[in-house]
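Illustration 12: MalT-like TPR region domain-containing protein.
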Amino acid sequence: MVPLTTAQLENFTQLAGNDPKHALELYPKYLAKLDEQHVEMQVALHLDALLAAMNAHSWSAFVTITQSLKEAQLQDILAGKRFKLLTRVGVAYRYNNQLEQAKRHYQCALGLANSDLELATLKVNLAIVFRLLEQPAMAFQLIDSIDSGQLTTRVKAGYSVIRGNILLSLHRFDNAVTSFELAHRLYIELNNQQSRIDVTRNILGAALASKQLEAYAKYRASYVDEIRQYSPKSQDYLTWLDIISNSMQTGSLTEQDEIFLRQQVSSLIELGYKEPVKAHLHNINAMYLYPNDVTGRKGAQALPENLGKPWCPSL
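Figure caption equivalent — predicted structure in token form:
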């Protein structure tokens, strides 16, 4: 049997992020190449496979891999990697909107960070959960405790998006626009076109929430062509934004446009646009279109509770 090479393991790490389904196909084949003499490589492979399963939203595989990590011979190596493990489990819970579980796993990891950057990244993840739990003040306290100057450009861009979303939840719409615009500039520096276009959508929503029609027009100019290339599912929200912008300028709302807003409002809230959508309707005196009962996004409950308990006894 040909052993697994370091180059193959490094390539697997890349695949876990860029082509997670392919990584999951390779995972059992690569694992079969490793015997008890290669415990460190086994742990690295398992942890990258967790990332692949998370990115592929393959939750049955995620649970199976977590169970594999419980093997006794892996624990000495895993002792130094509990931060990465618990953080990835926390992210998986967040992806499933199992937010209390995500919070508990992130909190378990707080004392395990080996660097300021790791701690900052964890605080960002925990802040996301508090915002989704509709505790934006706690989320802002966490995000504001981070020294953004210590962050890499890539992490700072993501941090700025999350900070903007928290500011939206606090109804600090002008500040949210500023934070999103910083992320926009950083994504241009990184040549990350997909993320630049995604954050443009955040800017458009926040600009209308804060009644910045000039900023809306500036970022809206080329956006329709961009979302056709990268984000086709954004078209309904773009139509919503254009209707809101037009209504803010004219002071009126056509019957046809009102029907569209009524049809879309609940689905947009479900997609996570609750704060800007509510502000938009308020700005055009159409709060009667906002649903009376708004529930949080529902989780699939795809993961059993306390997956990280073997590495965090307090769970």
